[in-house]
């Protein structure tokens, strides 16, 4: 069985809604970075944040009353994907709906606040309201409660490629007949402490733009938001093949893993939606594409949307699905013309298949191929 | 082919063998140590030594000695940077490969709740206090939940894709359940699964803040229970297509025959008092195994000793199974969160192999509202052919796996 994409939802720094964000990407828009300051240090960072009005029509559900930003992003994207499927008269029975939530850093803001209380004032001041929101599966729990899912719900944690792993798990749940539909949601929230950590990890740069495929890499900028993909039997865009990839113990081994994935997924007509983000990932993907898919049209959304880590791969999947449906890719922004790749300018006609290549920042890589 | 316990496995689904296992927990390093400690009903709960608990209501946990854990590690700067959780996973995996060196997984599915949390604490504390942040890149790189799994895989030259399930305290059982489904579907022949978690201040204080942790002894299902204690550890299981395992003459420790998962939307941290969530997971596990409730000989309960969990779980067990023997081994080793389901699955394997019921220690008086047949305070010999292991977690995730003995 090749699962189809029956609905999608998207919450990004460029706004909310698949059509809205897609149109802005196609126009060549890029998100505006905002300055994040923290109480923990004097240094400030820039990150791409979800605009405040993006969540204005989120349902008034008791579970979201105290929920963190990541839970709200996940709920908004998940509910939009279900709404899109329902608008096509699909009958989504919560009893037969599975949920897979993919995440990397999780509810950092509440985790930080909770631990800050312990560090500053001692254990006796720790908030019992915050603690439950720090667990990785809190967003999935809230979304399951809103949707009435009472069966399979899994939270999968990994690096930037975790969204692909989530789609793999969902596909297998569909294949075994455990569910009729499976909603895959990936989300992340940006916080000063994350910006500081990735800065100390020497992966970020101080200000935009993100310039993909430069050698040496210039650094990335973090972002936040969520993506949701509802998988089922319906949908014109099909998930044809998934490669859950492998692990690289050193950054220098990443090209080999990415190349293996591309070799497995490649089809001459496929365009590539890459995860290049201004880090070592770019060189891994550049070398792999040069060897395995030198003629493919290449697009990376990260200069426009930022590096949303756990949500990143699902954003790429949404872009790939939109590219197949609309026969075009957005233009790559700020790329290095000397990279030897065929970058999308926005003018080319997209192919009938698209590969999502996702190389994470912490040792995992995966990919998938969609077709229409 | 029907299995010897008479379960209805005449369908075309692939049978799933457990061909090797490894475990490190406060009960000991390895299955042999663990069995001895279970038989002796060892209480592994001691005063917390890893961080300051002066202002906590609970001051105890079941902890793994660093001397023994880190004493095992090979020298080298890279190894020295690894999180304790990585060392736990490496120790557990080492035992698994001692049992079956030929096992090469196609995929790895591991449960955890908090990954390398204590490294996140080190980083934040240093940041907050303007201390030396020289080690911050190593703290940050080793903090993510997939890292201990990848470290353990690297140690043994495994490059299988790695799924880390973080379904709170049900993570370990969910991981085993998913791994079971992968092999059972016929898509995979060999899957490495299990769970891990290392104790951390944030999680300890978190449970304390909820008043879910007890200042007294941990007494699951007791009338006077007052809450849980935390634990830590790692356990891994090698799952393989049963027929392939037989063909290569692998030692088969047991067979996983059923798995159930449900989501209880009552509350983020509290189960529906009716017990419907746990009951649905157990019913599904029975259904997927083609097993009747009266065929189950032993239940290793989630049994955290909190008022709410034990009431809901006890009600569900009593309604479904009547007086089947039940114990919560968390009374001995505390609640090791993402590792708990994996550790308890291995304990079930030991019960099946050694034909005994692991004890529920610190038990004084039955709860009049929970009619269960508790294996109170001492292990006892018994005929155990089929065992059920339960794990339930924050977020309302409930998971159950059924494991059966395999004829010698």
Q: Gist?
A:
The complex is a heterodimer of chains A (372) and B (408). Chain A has 372 residues and is of the alpha/beta class.
Task: Work out the number of β strands of chain B.
Answer: 16
Biggest β-sheet of chain B: count, sense, barrel?
Answer: 12 strands, mixed
Structural class of chain B: alpha/beta
**Count of separate DSSP helical elements of chain B:** 14
List the helices and strands and how they pair.
The complex is a heterodimer of chains A (372) and B (408).
Chain A: E1 4-12, E2 15-16, H1 18-26, E3 33-38, E4 41-48, H2 69-87, E5 97-103, H3 108-121, H4 138-147, E6 153-157, H5 162-175, E7 181-188, H6 192-200, E8 225-232, E9 238-247, H7 254-265, E10 270-273, H8 280-292, E11 297-299, H9 302-305, H10 312-326, E12 342-343, E13 353-359, E14 364-371
Parallel strand pairs in A: 5-6, 5-7, 10-11, 10-13, 11-12
Antiparallel strand pairs in A: 1-2, 1-8, 3-4, 7-8, 9-14, 13-14
Chain B: E1 16-25, E2 28-29, H1 31-39, E3 45-47, E4 60-62, H2 66-71, H3 77-81, H4 84-99, E5 107-111, H5 117-128, H6 136-141, H7 147-155, E6 162-165, H8 171-184, E7 190-197, H9 201-209, E8 233-241, H10 242-247, E9 254-263, H11 276-289, E10 298-300, H12 307-321, E11 325-327, H13 330-333, H14 340-354, E12 356-357, E13 373-374, E14 380-381, E15 386-393, E16 397-404
Parallel strand pairs in B: 5-6, 5-7, 10-11, 10-15, 11-13
Antiparallel strand pairs in B: 1-2, 1-8, 1-9, 3-4, 7-8, 9-16, 12-14, 15-16
Helix pairs in contact in B: 4-7, 8-14, 11-12
Could you characterize the architecture of this molecule?
The complex is a heterodimer of chains A (372) and B (408). Chain A is α/β, with parallel strands linked by helices and 372 residues long. Chain A has ten helices and 14 strands. Chain A has helices spanning 18-26, 69-87, 108-121, 138-147, 162-175, 192-200, 254-265, 280-292, 302-305, 312-326, and strands at 4-12, 15-16, 33-38, 41-48, 97-103, 153-157, 181-188, 225-232, 238-247, 270-273, 297-299, 342-343, 353-359, 364-371. In chain A, α2 (69-87) packs parallel to α4 (138-147) and α7 (254-265) packs across α8. Chain B has one domain: 3-Layer(aba) Sandwich (Peroxisomal Thiolase, Chain A, domain 1). Helix content of chain B is 34%, strand content 20%. Chain B is built from 14 helices and 16 strands. The two termini of chain B are 17 Å apart. The mean pLDDT of chain B is 94. The chains are: A alpha/beta (372), B alpha/beta (408). At the A-B interface, α3, α4, β6, α5 and α6 of A face α5, α6, α7, β6 and α8 of B.
């Amino acid at each position: 069985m090749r699962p189809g994409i029956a609905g999608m939802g998207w919450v990004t720094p460029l706004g909310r809604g698949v059509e809205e964000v897609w149109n802005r990407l196609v126009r060549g828009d890029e998100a505006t970075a905002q300055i994040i300051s923290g109480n923990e240090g004097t240094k400030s960072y820039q990150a791409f944040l979800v605009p405040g009005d993006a969540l204005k029509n989120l349902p008034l559900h008791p579970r979201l009353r105290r929920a963190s930003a990541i839970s709200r992003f996940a709920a908004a994207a998940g509910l939009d994907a279900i709404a899109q499927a329902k608008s096509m008269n699909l009958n989504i029975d919560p009893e037969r709906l599975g949920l897979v939530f993919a995440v990397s850093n999780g509810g950092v803001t509440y985790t930080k606040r909770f631990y800050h209380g312990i560090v500053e004032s001692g254990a006796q001041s720790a908030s019992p309201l915050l603690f439950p929101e720090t667990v990785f599966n809190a967003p999935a729990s809230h979304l399951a409660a809103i949707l009435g899912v009472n069966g399979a719900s899994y939270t999968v944690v990994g690096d930037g490629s975790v969204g692909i792993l989530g789609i793999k798990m969902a596909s297998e749940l569909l294949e075994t007949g455990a569910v009729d539909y499976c909603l895959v949601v990936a989300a992340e929230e940006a916080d000063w402490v994350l910006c500081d950590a990735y800065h100390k990890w020497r992966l970020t740069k101080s200000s935009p733009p993100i310039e993909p495929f430069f050698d040496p890499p210039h650094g990335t900028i973090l972002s936040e938001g969520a993506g949701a993909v509802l998988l089922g039997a319906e949908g014109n865009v099909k998930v044809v093949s998934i490669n859950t990839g492998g692990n690289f113990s050193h950054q220098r081994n990443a090209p080999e893993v990415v190349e293996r994935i591309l070799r497995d997924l490649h089809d001459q007509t496929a365009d590539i939606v890459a995860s290049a983000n201004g880090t070592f990932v770019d060189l891994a993907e550049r070398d792999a594409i040069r060897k395995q898919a030198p003629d493919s049209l290449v697009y990376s959304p990260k200069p426009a949307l930022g590096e949303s880590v756990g949500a990143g791969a699902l954003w790429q999947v949404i872009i790939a699905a939109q590219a197949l449906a609309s026969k075009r890719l957005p233009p790559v922004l700020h790329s290095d013309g000397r990279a030897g790749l065929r970058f999308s300018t926005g003018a080319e006609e997209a192919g009938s298949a698209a590969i999502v290549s996702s190389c994470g920042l912490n040792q995992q890589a995966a990919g998938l191929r969609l077709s229409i | 082919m029907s299995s010897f316990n008479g379960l209805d496995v005449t369908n075309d689904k692939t049978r799933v063998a457990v061909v090797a296992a490894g475990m490190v927990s406060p009960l000991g390093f390895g299955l042999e140590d663990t069995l001895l400690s279970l038989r002796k009903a060892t209480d592994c709960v001691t005063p917390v030594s890893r961080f300051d608990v002066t202002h906590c209501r609970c001051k105890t946990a079941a902890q793994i000695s660093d001397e023994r854990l880190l004493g095992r590690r090979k020298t080298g700067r890279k190894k020295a940077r690894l999180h304790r959780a990585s060392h736990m996973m490496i120790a557990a995996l080492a035992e698994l490969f001692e049992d079956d060196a030929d096992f090469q997984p196609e995929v790895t599915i591991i449960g955890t709740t908090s990954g390398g949390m204590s490294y996140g604490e080190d980083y934040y504390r240093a940041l907050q206090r303007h201390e030396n942040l020289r080690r911050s890149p190593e703290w940050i790189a080793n903090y993510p939940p997939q890292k201990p799994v990848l470290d353990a895989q690297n140690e043994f030259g495994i490059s299988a894709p790695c799924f880390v399930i973080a379904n709170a305290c049900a993570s370990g059982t969910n991981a085993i359940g998913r791994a079971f489904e992968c092999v059972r579907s016929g898509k995979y022949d060999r899957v490495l699964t299990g769970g891990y978690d290392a104790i951390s201040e944030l999680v300890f204080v978190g449970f304390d803040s909820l008043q879910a942790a007890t200042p007294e002894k941990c007494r699951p299902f007791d009338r006077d229970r007052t809450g849980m204690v935390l634990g830590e550890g790692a356990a891994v299981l090698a799952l393989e297509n049963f027929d392939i395992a037989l063909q290569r003459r692998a030692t088969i420790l047991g067979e996983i025959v059923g798995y159930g998962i449900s989501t209880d939307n009552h509350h983020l941290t509290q189960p529906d008092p009716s017990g419907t969530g746990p009951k649905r997971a157990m019913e599904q596990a029975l259904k997927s195994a083609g097993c009747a409730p009266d065929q189950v000989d032993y239940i290793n309960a989630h049994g955290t000793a909190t008022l709410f969990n034990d009431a809901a779980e006890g009600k569900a067990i009593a309604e479904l199974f009547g007086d089947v023997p039940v114990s919560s081994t968390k009374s001995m080793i505390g609640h090791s969160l993402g590792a708990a389901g994996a550790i308890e699955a291995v304990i079930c394997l030991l019960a099946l192999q050694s034909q005994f019921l692991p004890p529920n220690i610190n038990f004084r008086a039955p709860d009049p509202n929970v009619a269960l047949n508790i294996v109170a305070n001492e292990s006892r010999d018994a005929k155990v052919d089929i065992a059920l292991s339960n794990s339930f977690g924050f977020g309302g995730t409930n998971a159950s796996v059924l494991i059966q003995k395999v004829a010698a």
